[in-house]
Amino acid sequence: MGRVVFIGAGPGAADLITVRGARRLAEADVVLHDALTDPALRELAPRAEWIDVGKRGFRHSTHQSEIDALLVEMAQRHAVVVRLKGGDPSLFGRLEEELAALARAGIASEIVPGVTAALAAAASAQRPLTRRARGRSVAFSTAMTRERRLEVSHAADTQVFYMAGKQLGVLGERLRAAGWPADTPALVVSRAGWPDEARSHHDVATLAEAGASHEGQPTVVIVGAGASALTLSHEQDQAGTPEGEA
Q: Is residue 55 annotated as part of the catalytic site, yes or no?
């Protein structure tokens, strides 16, 4: 009986994987990988068998039950199986289902965290997700539920919506209905972490205008304090949490 290592590949280019992730990937006998992982990562595990089990919204995808069964089957045949997931495995990556399938089969597993798309998007745009005194909380949400409904709330100072590329107009309407003011800043980033990443700056009222630039691409939307422009004044509020504890 082998073991399964869940590795967060990062949100884009291969060099966003962590050092630990790269080391574990090099040990793999077989790799079950997502659709959005960089093909260049194959160079880190050249002797492994690579199997595409990717999922894409509104497109043909591998059923979750098939992935669960394949993980168990591969772990019964190989010493080290890597489940390579885009971004971080624990954020909208169906990690719970796959862990449960392995646990039922008595197969050991390990999780190596990765850089999630929200962090890469904020970094490239130089928009800190937390801000002293005015941005003390961040919430991660999916823009699409299992029933393909768009559910929006006002749960934090900064809200990040994943898988939002096809629903930007509706997202703007639902944000207004949830209590976000029309002039709330909104940052839209598609293909975060890739060389061809695209960014555009809006507010809640004009979010629909981003559709033409981002539709059809993996997209995150950052709304609220974390999407606002930098404060360049020397008289910034010094209240709030100490650096590193935001």
A: yes
Which residue type is seen at 171? L
Beta bridge partners of 200: 188
**Residues 45-92: tens digit of each pLDDT:** 999 999 999 866 545 568 999 999 999 999 999 999 999 999 999 999
Residue whose token pair is 């962090």: 119
Report which residue type is found at 77: R
Between CA 100 and CA 109 the distance in angstroms is 10
The single residue of 34, 68, 157, 203 carrying the catalytic annotation is 34
Q: Rounded to two decimals, what is the model's pTM?
A: 0.88
How confident is residue 134, by pLDDT bands cut at 50, 70 and 90?
Answer: confident
Residue where the block lists tokens 């910034």: 236
Which of the following is catalytic: 74, 144, 163, 166? Answer: 163
CB neighbour class for 101 (10 Å; exposed up to 12, middle 13-18, buried from 19)? buried
